[in-house]
Amino acid sequence: MSGELERAGAALAAESARMAGLGWMRGTSGNLSVTLGRAPLRLAVTASGLDKGELTASDVVVVDEAGAAVPDQPNPDQRPSAEAGLHARIAAVAGAGAVVHVHMLSAVVAGQRWPEGVVLRDLEMLKGLGRRDDDVMTVPVVPNSQDMRVLGDAFEASFDAATPAVVVARHGVYVWGRDLVQARHRTECLDWLFRFTLAANGIQEGVA
User: Fold this and answer.
1) How many domains is the chain partitioned into structurally?
2) What is the per-residue pLDDT for 36?
3) What's the DSSP call for residue 126?
4) What residues does Zn(2+) bind to (predicted)?
5) What does DSSP say about strands 98-102 and 31-38: parallel, antiparallel, or unpaired?
6) Is 176 helix (H, G, I), strand (E, B) or coil?
7) Is 171 marked as a binding-site residue?
8) How large is the angle between the packed helices 105-113 and 180-200, nearest 10 degrees?
9) Alpha carbon 179 to chain centroid distance?
10) Ligand-binding site membership of 101 (annotated)
11) To which H or E segment does residue 43 belong?
12) How buried is residue 36: exposed, middle or buried, by Cβ count under 10 Å (0-12/13-18/19+)?
């Protein structure tokens, strides 16, 4: 394993463990990625089917712009998530250095309640997403699909460069940033914003 890939794998494992501890990656669900290069596009993505709280630096797969594993993998028996294709699409369209996909309950409930987009306004925590505290930010909600090309098209159609997140209806949320730390911070802030907005509207998580 190259030094760059090993460092990426260690960072992905650490962040996965952190997010699993928050209940955002239950079972083997969810996946994280970091962009390794852009010409051609290459991402390191957490391997599929593994407990995200117990990953090691070697539990990572390098994928191309379509989310397919590239030849000459250090661990060729490991598979990337089927959702790696959307990670690659986000990296290409948004210029993301890292993408977080988690099954955060607040995001799923908010998407169920506001399928046309979750409006967040006049909250200090918006600064954590690169917006002003008096901003209005609408997080898009797109229909779920098992076809990553369809899901990628829906993401791209809803994309706003100033909004680093998209909710996939009845599934989860994708959040991105320049690196894994920023993507994690944005995910944490977004969870708080969703929780507040749900509570302010008298909606309990789990009761859409």
Assistant:
1) 1
2) 96
3) G
4) 101, 103
5) antiparallel
6) strand
7) no
8) 50
9) 12
10) yes
11) strand 41-46
12) middle
In sequence order, the 6+-apart residues with CB closer than 8 A to the CB of 79 are: 47, 48, 49, 61, 69
- The burial class, CB within 10 Å (0-12 / 13-18 / 19+), for 64 is middle
106 is in which domain, residue-wise?
Answer: 3-206
Report residue 156 CA to chain centroid gap. Answer: 15
Residue with the larger pLDDT of the pair 77 and 153: 153
Please state, in angstroms and rounded to a whole number, the distance separating the CA atoms of residues 133 and 43: 33
pLDDT digits (tens, 9 = 90+) for 66-121: 999 999 888 788 899 889 999 999 999 999 999 999 999 999 999 999 999 999 99
Phi then psi for residue 71, to 5 deg, are: -65, 165
Neighbouring residues of 78: CB distance < 8 A, sequence distance ≥ 6: 47, 48, 59, 60, 61
**Dihedral pair phi/psi, residue 157, rounded to 5°:** -65, -30
Burial class (CB in 10 A: 0-12, 13-18, 19+), 40: exposed
- Residue 65, pLDDT > 50, answer yes
Cβ contacts of 130 within 8 Å, gap of 6 or more: 162, 164
Helices (H), the chain: 3-21, 84-94, 105-113, 148-158, 180-200
Q: What is the CATH number of the domain that holds 85?
A: 3.40.225.10
d(CA 97, CA 186): 13
Q: How many helices (H) and strands (E) does the chain have?
A: 5, 9
Contact (CB, 8 A) for 33 and 5: no
